[in-house]
Amino acid sequence: MSSLAEITVDQIKEVLGDLVEETFEKPGQDPWVRVRTDGWRETAVRLHGKLGYDYFCFLSAIDWMPSPYGKGEEDPTAEKEPIDTTIRQGYAGGSTRVQVFARLVNHRTHTGITVKADVPEDSWTVESWVGVFAGANWHEREAHEMFGIAFDGHPDLRNIYLPTDFEGHPLRKDFPLLARMVKPWPGIVDVEPLPGGDDEGEGAAE
Amino acid sequence: MTMLAGNPQSDRQQLAYIASQAADARVNVELETEGMTLNIGPQHPATHGTLRIIARLDGEQVIWAEPSAGYMHRGYEKLTEVRSFPQVTALINRIDWLGSFANEVPFILAAEQLMEIEAPPRAQWIRTILFELSRIANVSLFLGDLGVQLGAVTPVFFAFRDREYVLNLIESATGGRFHPNFDRIGGLKDDLPAGWIDETRAVMKKMRKFCDEIENLLFGNEIFESRTRGIGVIPRDVALQYGLSGANLRASGVDWDLRRDQKLPMAWDKVDWKVWTHLDGDSYARCWVRLQETRESTYIVERLLDTLPSGPVMTKVPRIIKVPEGEAWVSTENPLGEMGYYVVSKGDLGPFRVKIRSASFNNISIVPWLLKGVYVPDIITILASLYFILGDIDR
Predict the structure, then answer these.
(1) What is the pTM of this model?
(2) Listing from the earlier edge strand, what are the strands of the sheet with A20-24?
(3) A129 with A144: CB under 8 angstroms?
(4) Which of A90, A110, A185 lies nearest to residue B261, judging by beta carbons?
(5) If we measure between CA atoms, which residue out of B389, B365, B349, B364 comes closest to residue B134?
(6) What is each CA distance from A121 to A85, B229, B323, in whole angstroms?
(7) DSSP secondary structure string, B62-117?
(8) Which of B54, B64, B66, B84 is the best substitution to test chain A (most A C-beta atoms within 10 A)?
(9) Spatial separation of the C-alpha atoms in residues B363 and B344, rounded to whole Å
(10) What is the per-residue pLDDT across A116-154, written as a single tens digit (0 to 9) for each?
(11) Is B327–A91 a contact, with Cβ atoms under 8 angstroms apart?
(12) Residue ranges of the domains in chain A?
């Protein structure tokens, strides 16, 4: 909607003040803003109250460490090449392995924002958004079980998908996908020759 | 205890009074209907799929309710990390299985955004047409199912009968009734088959007739009105902070449709159509908005067919697709609400992380708030009017 004024990054910086660590812009797209971990809740309060970001879209987390298991395409019995697990954060930078990120939208101007924050690796704790956006409740429960992030101030951090006694955090990159560990994926290169086919194992990639 | 200090006579009176009050309270508690926990699902016939709802009842009233999701969690976010980009569409097809094609579009658009390519106009048009067809197929089943939840059996037969026409159209164009897997990065797998356009026009007329039938059968019916009017009211602010989307949000008076309010390489902005809203926010409003949207979708399809451009349906893409490093968020107005993908690529064959924002997850997270204080028979109608697909909650 061009008739309505868009919220600019300068406005966001002005409202958030020293909470902002880094911003990232791409033409034609909503901005990315990374804020201080201790200002995570305050960010939501200010964006909601002062800039009218009233629609809660989602909240989740990213583990920036490349998976040490690769994609499981190669023969599991073959000798493994070492996989580079250097952590490289995405847009708006960062300094920790896991980041929480969320998206808010101002439903009047139809502009959105992606907010990110580092998750400290000693405590794995960030503040909860439930007091600001009631919809964050389930999203934080999901992020809690999938990444092992505790949300300070969340009323009820039970598992939402996984069984109560499940061990590990499935969406962390160092959690292996067992099906891929025991059998290589035939999708990228056909490892088994087709029945009756002439080709010797080296099937065409689809 | 300050009130007990002073005159011993009045102290005794005071204590006697408190004791009698406490005794009354106990009697009251004992006379009250005993609290009871009611399990709805996972196999209850009135729930769609395997959603389980644990409700704590006091007599006929719900005092606490909590949906228990996760019976169908398939871990798509983890699985996408070990697939290549073109392979992901086969997975995400199965998130909302009644409107499969609509699931593929935002992911493909996100990948295209990162690769900085755009599908040719004809592909954009066909994408939009198939998107709207999957909306019609999806929501027509909702309209039929709605009657069943209220004890009217006829609408569901109409819905299954007429949805078949739309599924046949999707099948003849894509090859799959439920899981088309037709969208490709850079365009579409194929062009439309011969005669498809005329057939679609005929089916759209049939679907409008179906909408009229449902409207005559349900809307205006006294039982339907009394069971849905003023039941399960969601105020606008609550809807926004829970992240409700789609018809649920528009039924609460928020005039917001991503098809209109977002710039995407799709064809919605090329034709004239209307966004339907309702101010009431109750079950009736949600059903009414969906009915109007289904009818509006048939017009969108017809108008897009009128302006369908010629040309190729696939742009030039490398045979092995590598998506450049970056992050992209694309969401579209799916039959169930806002569905989006946050795609992170590291310049590899497959995505590094995909966050799937599905509509039903947010739409159903309002249930503990919404069911507080309602009567037991209304649980089912409220859930039906919120309209969720289990695969869309559990992903």
Answers:
(1) 0.83
(2) A20-24, A32-35, A111-118, A98-106, A55-63
(3) no
(4) A110
(5) B389
(6) 17, 51, 30
(7) EEEEEEE--TT---HHHHGGGS-HHHHHHHHTTSSTTSHHHHHHHHHHHHHHHHT-
(8) B84
(9) 25
(10) 998 888 888 898 988 888 888 899 999 998 898 988 888
(11) yes
(12) 9-176
- Superfamily grouping for domain A9-176: NADH:ubiquinone oxidoreductase Nqo5 subunit (3.30.460.80)
Which regions of chain B are under pLDDT 70? 1-10, 20-21, 23-34, 43-50
| Contact at CB, A54 and B240, closer than 8 angstroms | yes
CA contacts within 13 A on the Cβ side of B315? 15
Q: What angle do CA A81, A83, A84 make, to 5 degrees?
A: 140
Could you tell me the residue ranges of all domains in chain B? 79-367
What pLDDT is recorded for position B8? 57
Q: Hey, what CATH class is B79-367 in?
A: mainly alpha
Residues of chain A with Cβ-Cβ distance to B81 below 8 Å are 67, 71, 173, 177
On whether ipTM exceeds 0.90, the answer is no
Per DSSP, which regions of A76-203 are E strands?
Answer: 98-106, 111-118, 125-127, 150-152
CA pair distance B150, B227, nearest whole angstrom: 8
Residues of A in contact with B324 (CB under 8 A): none
Query: If you average pLDDT over every residue of chain A, what do you get?
Result: 79
pLDDT in tens, B40-65: 777 655 556 667 888 888 778 888 88
Token pair belonging to A11? 């406005």
Cis peptide before B42 (omega within 30 of 0): yes
